Automatic annotation (TrEMBL):
Organism: Pyruvatibacter mobilis
Gene Ontology terms for molecular function: catalytic activity
Annotated family: Belongs to the amidase family.
Taxonomy of the source species: Bacteria, Pseudomonadati, Pseudomonadota, Alphaproteobacteria, Hyphomicrobiales
Annotated function: Hydrolyzes indole-3-acetamide (IAM) into indole-3-acetic acid (IAA).
Pfam families xrefs: Amidase
Residue intervals of the Amidase domain: 28-457
Protein name (Swiss-Prot/TrEMBL): Indoleacetamide hydrolase
InterPro entries in alphabetical order: Amidase, Amidase_CS, Amidase_dom, AS_sf
Xref: SUPFAM superfamilies: Amidase signature (AS) enzymes
Amino acid sequence: MSGFSEYDQYDALGLADLVRRKDVTPTELLDEAITRLERVDTTLNAVPLRHYDEARAQISRGLPDGPFTGVPFLLKDLHLLLTGTVTTYGSGAFTGNVADHNSTLTQRYLDAGMVIFGKTNSPEFGLAGTTEPRLYGPTRNPWNTEHSPGGSSGGAAAAVAAGVLPIANASDGGGSIRVPASACGLFGLKPTRARTPMGPDRGEGWGGMSISHAVSRSVRDNAALLDATCAPAPGDPYAAPAPARPYLDEVTTEPRRLRIALTATGPNGNSADTEVQAGLDATATLLRELGHEVIEAAPKVDPADMALAQISLIASNIALTLDMRSEALGRPVTENDVEHITWAIAQNGRGLTAADFARGTLTIHRLGRLVADFMTEQKADLLLSPTLALPPVKLGTVNMDSEDIAAYLDINARYMPFPGLFNMTGQPSMSVPLHWTEAGLPVGMMFTAPFGDEATLFQLAGQLERARPWGDRRPPVHAAG
């Protein structure tokens, strides 16, 4: 691999195969990833926390024999801990928060052979569909640096889209894997609730709405990483249904003829704009060409109930996070320590009752049954909508430091009305990069399967990737130069 000019020809499994064949060393791959990051990150600001020395020490200690041995990897700066490194949650309140242990999922990445060399930018506590924390500043979209890469896994998506690495950790509590995958032209899958572990510090995220996995260029990398990380851990409060076989096998399996329910209108009544609608129409045409049946139908949910449940579960968790940080610091976390919207959400959480939290939990469980019943009644194998109702918004459109909370809620409702329902129902849901606007901005299409059925998603994603490949598309800001 002379000069690493071939780096972009390989996904993560391909790079691991080169290491396995001794065509390249893990150190050479790490050096290439670091060089690429340094080349583009002055522009993108995707990776504020660098673990170069720790990554080199990891290699020197010897890497395990796993599916991704020697592949450079980045964690999102939210929840996942790596011993001896800082996790800030995108918040100044957590500056200097050094981990004394690994998260369970971090350990599984290490056991798979990943070489972790940094953490990607996230909005404060993952609370926005963009990535512009006060602490580190905005991450820019490599397709157009005036635009957001999405959030809350915006740093991860920007780094992968810009060719720094082929796959990176991401998490999703209201769309935060799928939204940046859409905005950056990547594949992103939110797994079924409890598919990946959240221990040892938590049993679930945001009342079961949040889960971690990855954004990637290739579908097969995403599937193989889920294979490596998806088993329940001892002590987990509950587990997702076990897969019938490896997800990697599903990627090359042609799906049966699927019946897919399509909608361009989100549960809150907000609809896709004209450019996004064009992508949805083209996707429906492609699906029919591939032999699938597409019908127009959507479950009817109460948007007020959804909103109340979401804020009850999220706000109570944010209040607890700040309270626990106060205990660790030995002083109160104040309004000055966090962004204005964060503080408002936490104050809302402190005003909730135990009955409010219980009602929120009851609501999302009812939603799960409502959507499951809808899919059964419609004989629908999958649900299809755009991932986002608008193309990637410009930076500054979503402002976590704004005092206009109504405006913050309004833009979120108009920009991302589709993903959050499936965090509440716990269903697996993916964004597939199938459309670009006339201005060259990516637009993802979101497919959602019944609870526990990532297999069908990976089968369809593999078919779509073969039919409309996206892996060779490069944004204007790219590490290859």
